[in-house]
């Protein structure tokens, strides 16, 4: 899927998550090795702690963002509705995470993920990502995580 094709795509068609677990508002850019998303923090978010997005919410946002890189390869390029497949992904390891700041309700974060490695077994994909989350261009989270992604 080309970056120019993503402006009208409903990301919830491609992630198994639904509100209140959906932690990505939209995809800003995506290619075969990287992705950028945004997420506006609503006061209804289940990952709030004292009007801030919690550490668990930041991790879930990074995971949902990163899964888009590998996840897109399970769909036909012309499938803009996400009807051609259903995927499940799991965080298999958080290798490193640094959280510098918790964003507040009504703020919008931008999360970027870069594919570090990928191994396809035919039934499952094992992959590793580096992620960074920004608030007003200030780095607030940096992580490296491993995932397992498979069709259901």
UniProtKB/TrEMBL annotation:
Which SUPFAM superfamilies does the UniProt record give? Thioesterase/thiol ester dehydrase-isomerase
Pfam hit, one = ApeP-like
Taxonomically, the superkingdom here is: Bacteria
InterPro entries the UniProt entry points to: ApeP-like_dehydratase, HotDog_dom_sf
**Stated name of the protein:** 3-hydroxymyristoyl/3-hydroxydecanoyl-(Acyl carrier protein) dehydratase
């Amino acid at each position: 899927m080309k970056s120019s094709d993503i402006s009208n795509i409903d990301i919830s068609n491609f992630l198994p998550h639904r509100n209140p677990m959906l932690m990505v508002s939209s995809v800003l850019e995506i290619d075969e090795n990287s992705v950028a998303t945004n997420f506006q923090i609503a006061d209804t978010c289940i990952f709030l702690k004292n009007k801030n997005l919690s550490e668990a919410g930041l991790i879930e946002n990074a995971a949902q963002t990163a899964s888009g890189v590998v996840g897109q390869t399970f769909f036909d390029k012309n499938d803009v509705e996400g009807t051609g497949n259903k995927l499940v992904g799991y965080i298999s390891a958080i290798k490193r995470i640094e959280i510098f700041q918790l964003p507040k309700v009504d703020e919008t974060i931008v999360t970027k993920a870069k594919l570090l490695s990928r191994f396809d077994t035919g039934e499952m994909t094992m992959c590793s990502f580096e992620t960074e989350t920004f608030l007003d261009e200030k780095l607030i989270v940096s992580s490296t995580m491993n995932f397992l992604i498979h069709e259901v």
